[in-house]
Amino acid sequence: MEKTPAYDPLTQLRDRVTFFADRKAASDTKLRQHLIMLQISELPKINRMYSVQAGDQFLRVMSAFLDSFGPDYKAYRLANARFLLLGKECSQSDADSFTGRLRARFEQIWQVETENGSCEVTVMPQIVHMFLDPGISDNGLMDRLNYGASNAIYTANAQSGILFFGKELEEALERKIYIINEVKYAIEHKTFQIYYQPIYDCKNKVFTSAESLIRLSARDGSFISPGDFIPMAEERGLIDSISWIVLEKVCDFLGRHKELQLKSVSINMTGQQILDPAFIRRIEENLEKNEIEGSKLRIEITERTVTDNFDEVKKVMLRLAEMGVQFYLDDFGTGYSNLSSMLRLPFEVIKFDVSLMRLMEESKKGLKTIELLSNIMHENSYLIVSEGIETAEQAEQAFQLQMDRIQGFFYSKPMAEAQLIAFLENFSDAF
């Protein structure tokens, strides 16, 4: 028995339930379909500029247009500002032509009549279209819609305001899903590997610290770059779980290798973790479990972490400093820096980002800037780590600028635990 279609009460378009029922009916017949999504991201702006009533009326006017635009297409309201057109399979040229004519209407003004008068509304939606194979699940479809509508993907791939979700994006989405699944598995089973990049002490000419960096090998043995999985983990809200694993593994490493010459190892933490009520307790538990002093652990945070919640972050920093745990300000030089705020916090080390260090190679003005910043930090008793040093010339210049420590490929790439131990035992000073 065929179900009666359900309709959205505002626009009178078929609703979400009806869309998925119609999709299933077409899938059962093994027919391909052409799907168009319109994402009206400017709806809140219309509501603010005119009124919510005007926004609602615009949606009614637009919905009536969509419902009558193509005789072979049905229109649906999937969510508040997301609309769909579902039609039969057609040629690529016909699909492009139809979608192009649809967009052309949005280049024109929409005349909206309300009780308070008329207003002229201009809107340019994100338009994503694709061919749907019968075997694509409802979740698979939503993955494609969400991926295509994401700002980064849409901006990079849309042509003339329209994105066609073809083979290249299918493969990119498949890769993303693969990586997310591997990240989730690695979180559940704690299979991330920790690599360490030694940091050279220019005064004592030894390695006294190292930064811990996370690495991921997939279950099939392939390597997944942090540049790929970290942004995806952040997007899915998984980055904090990863950072807790890093804390556990680094403290375990320090506990098992108390004989190492390293005075400390640093870990990267997010602002959300720093402000977690359980943050200090988790630090204490890991230190006690592995029988290590707080002075063996350093925490790297970015300026954004500090500026978003200055007073609360300061309280946490001061409490941990009492335990011997010190802080590094990471990526200094990558954005706006409120020095007056930074100088009020108990950082031990300021890490000059590689982009900042490259200024000294570009011009005399850049070199003077680094010298000035270096002097300010030293006058306020901070140590400076010069990041991204890759050549002997850069290292020599860092020495001349009286940088306290050097981190970069010139001395060492990040390495696994066993490699780090061998490296520290066999290192021969380069200066």
Overview of the molecule:
47% of the residues lie in helices and 22% in strands. Strand 2 (73-79) and strand 3 (82-88) form a beta hairpin. The strands form 3 sheets. Strands 8-9-11-12-13-14-15-16 form an 8-stranded mixed barrel, surrounded by 5 helices. The protein has a 5-stranded mixed sheet with strand order 2-3-1-6-7, with helices on both faces. Strands 4-5 form a two-stranded antiparallel ribbon. It has 2 domains: 16-165, Reverse transcriptase/Diguanylate cyclase domain (Alpha-Beta Plaits), CATH 3.30.70.270; 178-426, TIM Barrel (Alpha-Beta Barrel), CATH 3.20.20. The protein has 431 residues and is of the alpha/beta class. The relative contact order is 0.07. The protein has helices spanning 16-28, 43-49, 52-69, 92-106, 138-149, 151-157, 167-189, 226-235, 239-256, 271-274, 279-289, 303-308, 310-322, 339-342, 354-357, 359-362, 364-379, 392-400, 417-426; strands at residues 33-39, 73-79, 82-88, 110-114, 117-121, 126-132, 162-164, 193-201, 206-217, 223-224, 264-268, 297-302, 326-332, 347-352, 383-386, 405-406. It is built from 19 helices and 16 strands. The model has no long low-confidence stretch (mean pLDDT 91). It starts with 15 loop residues before the first helix and ends in a 5-residue tail after the last helix. The chain is elongated.
